[in-house]
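User: Could you go from structure to sequence for me? I need the amino acid at each position, not a summary. Structure tokens:
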């Protein structure tokens, strides 16, 4: 059977998973009337809740007698490393671009990787149903992007399709048609059949799957020869070791699932069960003549965070896994499949330094752990600083903001305060399109203030640019916080009295402890407050209002918002049930002593 291998790539939210849904439906992967819902490929709990793709996934369909392996990829820049890796399974890409937004930072990143691997690109201008969209302008912008990325003559001659994944049609010109068959025909026509080299078996493991029945499953494309059920193979690892191993079971992809196979030939994507101790990047090779494929390099981490055991007074109340042993084992296990993650021991046996690709990358890990029953404390995310030529350097990023014209002044102010410099300002429909160069540090916490200051209208995205000299101090959070004076349940009575001092993060009746952050102060500077006072009992009823205390509901922040909120002397307590903000040192006197000591240190 003929084969086509394609990866769907794009900036976040440009409609990749929706398109994969439509491909699955159009090729009758599901029975008539079968209820499947939307975004069926985003099948992980966290993906469903957030409406984003976190892990890339394989599916396969049959169309006009050809098997098409489809790889859905995540669009968020934190998961760029994952995209880079799975592109190794593809021979062509569908580059989706939103017909209104046009190419965005991650469009550039994924296209660059695809061109570098010499994959055949097909451009899909998606969401042409959006009002005010600009498909022709966007097409020109995509051409310019190819050009800027030094695409070859042949790559510049890319085919383009227009359409709407949501409305279920794609056409080779911007005219609505009945379905997506023009695009499927385009895939058969433009994407080359996999190149197959002559020689014995070679298959590089590019991703990892897990099944509770079968254990760890290695996924990759067979590059050469064929792989057989029960066959003996050599597993070749990055450090040069070669292990003999036996293939227990083999699968290929079919629809959303997998189909058992006895032999898989070069060109097809395959899932292998029964290998022990393998890693992503290893080559499964012929037992007699083992030859390794080049190792996979992934982009370096850009951010670090301190993960510690939970040492709050409420330690151990919610979680199953609370010791440093639990924490360490879990983190080490994660590095096996999460290639962009690194874990280091620290001076303290209870803390580990975890390096990742950004707030979302680390946030997803923490969220997954808390759902598994872990309790932990995490500190403020830090960007990774490098010493280059004896000078301190830090990462810089390109920040792109699209915002209605009225707000552009505010946005420029906000970014400039954080040491950003404006590079581009142009209009794009009714929107202003702004581009800045900004130290990565300045981006932490920017998203939430950007949304508040633009009534939620700003669309922002960023991508790593390069390491450049340290830009000096960047102002942190403007406001101080209110800290609990005691360990008890909060009361409506006290919160009501304190409401004009700040915005609360806790509701009445919640257990709090000394040094816990319970509200944002309306002014700079921290304040210790009593939020647990009971109402004084009197035998006279005060007039009216007192009984019906009006408490504004607490401000609920997501884990990632908390990560961007806290300052260097604060941390987040994460348990399966709660996310609490706190001072790292809970006792006030101790905190002050430490601060003085630190200041003295700086003076030296
Ligand atoms: N108007 C319009 N909206 C669309 C279209 N296609 C997808 N969407 C919407 O865009 C949003 C994002 O769609 P997804 O398919 O999840 O995007 P994605 O590229 O997979 O996103 P990530 O995996 O998070 O990078 C959803 O709310 C879709 O309903 C379209 O053709 N037109
Ligand atoms: Mg998706």
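Assistant: Here is the amino acid at each position, in order:
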């Amino acid at each position: 059977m003929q084969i086509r291998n394609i990866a769907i790539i794009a900036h976040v939210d440009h409609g990749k998973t929706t398109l994969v849904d439509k491909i699955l439906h159009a090729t009758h992967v599901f029975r008539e009337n079968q209820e499947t819902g939307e975004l069926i490929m985003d099948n992980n709990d966290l993906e469903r809740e957030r409406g984003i793709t976190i892990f890339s996934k394989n599916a396969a369909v049959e169309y006009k007698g050809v098997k098409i392996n489809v790889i859905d990829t995540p669009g968020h820049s934190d998961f760029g490393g994952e995209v880079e890796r799975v592109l190794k399974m593809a021979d062509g890409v569908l580059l989706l671009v939103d017909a209104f937004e046009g190419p965005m930072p991650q469009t550039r990143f994924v296209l660059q990787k695809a061109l570098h691997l010499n994959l055949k690109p097909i451009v899909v201008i998606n969401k042409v149903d959006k009002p005010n969209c600009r498909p022709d302008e966007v097409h020109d912008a995509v051409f310019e992007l190819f050009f800027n990325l030094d695409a070859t003559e042949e790559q510049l001659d890319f085919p383009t399709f227009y359409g709407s994944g949501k409305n279920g049609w794609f056409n080779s010109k911007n005219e609505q048609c009945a379905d997506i068959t023009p695009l499927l025909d385009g895939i058969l026509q433009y994407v080359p059949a996999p190149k197959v080299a002559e020689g014995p078996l070679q298959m590089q493991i590019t991703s990892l799957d897990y099944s509770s029945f079968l254990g760890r499953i290695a996924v990759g494309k067979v590059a050469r020869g064929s792989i057989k059920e029960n066959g003996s193979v050599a597993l070749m690892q990055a450090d040069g070791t070669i292990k003999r191993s036996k293939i227990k079971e083999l699968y290929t992809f079919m629809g959303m699932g997998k189909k058992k196979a006895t032999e898989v030939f070069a060109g097809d994507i395959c899932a292998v069960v029964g290998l022990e101790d393998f890693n992503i990047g290893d080559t499964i090779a012929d037992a007699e003549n083992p030859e390794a494929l080049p190792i996979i390099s992934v982009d370096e981490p850009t951010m670090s965070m301190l993960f510690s055991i939970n040492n709050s007074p409420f330690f151990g109340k919610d979680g199953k896994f609370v010791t440093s042993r639990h924490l360490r084992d879990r983190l080490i296990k994660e590095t096996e499949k999460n290639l962009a993650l690194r874990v280091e021991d620290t001076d303290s046996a209870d803390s580990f330094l975890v390096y990742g690709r950004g707030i979302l990358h680390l946030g997803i890990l923490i969220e997954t752990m808390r759902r598994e029953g872990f309790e932990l404390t995490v500190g403020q995310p830090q960007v990774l600083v490098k010493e280059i030529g004896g000078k301190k350097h830090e990462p810089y990023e390109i920040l792109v903001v699209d915002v209605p014209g009225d707000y552009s002044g505010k946005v420029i102010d906000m970014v400039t305060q954080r040491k950003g410099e404006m590079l581009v300002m142009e209009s794009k429909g009714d929107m202003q399109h702004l581009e800045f160069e900004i130290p990565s540090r300045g981006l932490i916490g920017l998203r939430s203030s950007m949304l508040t200051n633009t009534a939620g209208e700003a669309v922002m995205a960023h991508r790593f640019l390069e390491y450049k000299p340290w830009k000096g101090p960047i102002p942190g959070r403007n406001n101080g916080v209110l800290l609990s004076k005691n360990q008890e349940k909060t009361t409506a009575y006290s919160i009501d009295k304190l409401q004009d001092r700040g915005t609360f993060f806790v509701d009445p009746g919640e257990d709090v402890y000394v040094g816990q952050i319970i509200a944002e102060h309306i002014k700079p500077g921290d304040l210790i407050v009593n939020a647990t006072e009971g109402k004084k009992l009197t035998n006279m009823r005060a007039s009216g209002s007192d009984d019906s205390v009006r408490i504004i509901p607490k401000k609920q922040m997501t884990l990632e918002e908390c990560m961007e909120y806290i300052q260097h002397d604060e941390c987040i307590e994460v348990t399966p049930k709660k996310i609490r903000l706190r001072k790292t040192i809970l006792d006030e006197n101790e905190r002050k002593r430490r601060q003085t000591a630190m200041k003295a240190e700086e003076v030296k």
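One structural detail worth keeping in mind: The two ends are 72 Å apart (CA to CA).
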